[in-house]
Amino acid sequence: MVMMASSSSTIQSVYPRVSGANFHVPLSPHSLVPIYNNSHSFSKLRNSIHLAAAPLPKASAGNGGLTDDGVSLGTMKLPLDNDLQRFASLLFQEIIYTDEPCLILLLCQQ
Amino acid sequence: MNMISSDPLVIGRVIGDVVDHFTPTVKITVSYNNKQVYNGHEFFLSSVTTKPQVQIHGGDMRSFFTLVMTDPDVPGPSDPYLREHLHWMVTDIPGTTDATFGNEVVEYEILRPNIGIHSRSEGGVMKTATTRVLFNSRSFAEENELGPLVAAVFFNAQRETAARRH
């Protein structure tokens, strides 16, 4: 009994800020290890946050893929802001330019 | 012995693509604004907008001729899938006169080719209607029982600003 009381008194004198709730749990120098474990847990949490952030660039790349910078016209790709009417006009003009008549006059006896 | 023809009508593929080989027997002179047309020469389109003067020097007043102007290179020489295009036709031209004495059955039209039937078939030499597009000189002469081809002249008409855009 006296020994029990002496042990309790010793603990209190060594860790004076320990509350009475922890009376039944004998604290030892090894109790520092859980603190290290807690730090490790925080590290894991940060890693998790980092991993969570990793998809963001990927998602951004995905969005970049969706944003097409032109309209496919066969083998030619034009920007969206292209003046298609003028483009068609140029094509038409090109056709006109090739239409240079070679005129032939033929005279037949009736 | 292979002979290379020096005939401009052969070199220009008029004989072959448009007509069969023939021997010219009548002399004609064609001119735009007093500028005579020679085989293979070039004119600006702006100078051929009005019909040319076509003088027939052969025959006599009792013989009659039909004049046809076509373009075999439509829409372009690399792929003339609309060959030929009929630009002008005058029938019943008396010999020793010019085209103004004949019957213009297809109006002269160079710059604004018009699609459709534009010929009159009543009277004169024409027996069948014809269109400007996909005209065929050989078939036309045969179907209308024309006589032999007696003269031909060809020239190119180009635009003043024909340079291609890049």
Write up what this structure looks like.
- The complex is a heterodimer of chains A (110) and B (166).
- With 110 residues, chain A is α+β, with helices and mostly antiparallel strands.
- Chain A has a domain at 83-109.
- Chain A is built from four helices and three strands; from the N terminus they run αααββαβ.
- Chain A has helices at residues 2-14, 32-53, 55-66, 84-98; strands spanning 71-73, 76-78, 102-109.
- Chain A has a two-stranded antiparallel sheet.
- Chain A is rod-shaped, with a radius of gyration of 43 Å.
- The model of chain A is unreliable at 1-70 and 91-98 (pLDDT under 50).
- Chain B has 166 residues and is mainly β.
- Chain B has a single domain, classed as PEBP-like (Phosphatidylethanolamine-binding Protein), CATH 3.90.280.10.
- Chain B is built from three helices and eight strands, in the order H-H-E-E-E-E-E-E-E-H-E.
- Chain B has a three-stranded antiparallel beta sheet, with no helix packed on it. A three-stranded antiparallel beta sheet of chain B has the order 5-6-7, with no helix packed on it. Chain B has a two-stranded parallel ribbon with strand order 3-8.
- In chain B, strand 1 and strand 2 form a beta hairpin.
- Chain A: InterPro entries: DUF7148 (IPR055572).
- Chain A: Residues 68-93 form the DUF7148 domain.
- Chain A: This is DUF7148 domain-containing protein.
- Chain B: Its main location: cytoplasm.
- Chain B: InterPro entries: PEBP, PEBP-like_sf, PEBP_euk, Phosphatidylethanolamine-bd_CS.
- Chain B: Belongs to the phosphatidylethanolamine-binding protein family.
What labels describe this entry?
heterodimer, A: 110 residues, alpha+beta, two-stranded antiparallel ribbon, 4 helices, 3 strands, disordered N terminus, B: 166 residues, mainly beta, Phosphatidylethanolamine-binding Protein, 3-stranded antiparallel sheet, 8 strands, globular, DUF7148 (chain A)
